[in-house]
Amino acid sequence: MSDEQELSASTPLVDDIRALIDGARQRAAAVVNAELTLLYWRIGQRINEETLHGRRADYGRQTVANLSAQLTLEYGGGWGEKHLRHCLRLA
């Protein structure tokens, strides 16, 4: 048996370890997705609190634009105005 055939052979141990790894990956992805959803909701809620205190719509647009610029500088891409507006809709 070649090394390649030996490495690709499935055994109960390999199958069990694969199942453990796959299960952990699925659970980790579910936790990350839930945490991101909560984060986006909280961000939207906080922006709404800031912009809905009787202020004009222009103030809200300006707030989102400024916030987006600051977050993009600090955290990199992914915090554009479009994304923040998605957070607002989620909240």
SSE arrangement:
Elements: H1 3-8, H2 12-51, H3 57-75, H4 81-90
Helix pairs in contact: 2-4
Structure in words:
This protein has 91 residues and is mainly alpha-helical. The protein is built from four helices and no strands. It is elongated, with a radius of gyration of 23 Å. It has helices spanning 3-8, 12-51, 57-75, 81-90.
The residue-averaged pLDDT reads 89
Percent of residues in helices comes to over 70%
- Main beta sheet: strand number and arrangement? none
Instruction: Please count the helical segments.
Output: 4
Strand content: under 5%
Assembly type of the chains comes to single chain
- Strand/helix succession: HHHH
Return Rg in Å: 23 Å
Identify the overall geometry. elongated
N-to-C CA distance: 59 Å
How many β-strands, per DSSP? 0
Structural class: mainly alpha
Low confidence ranges:
none
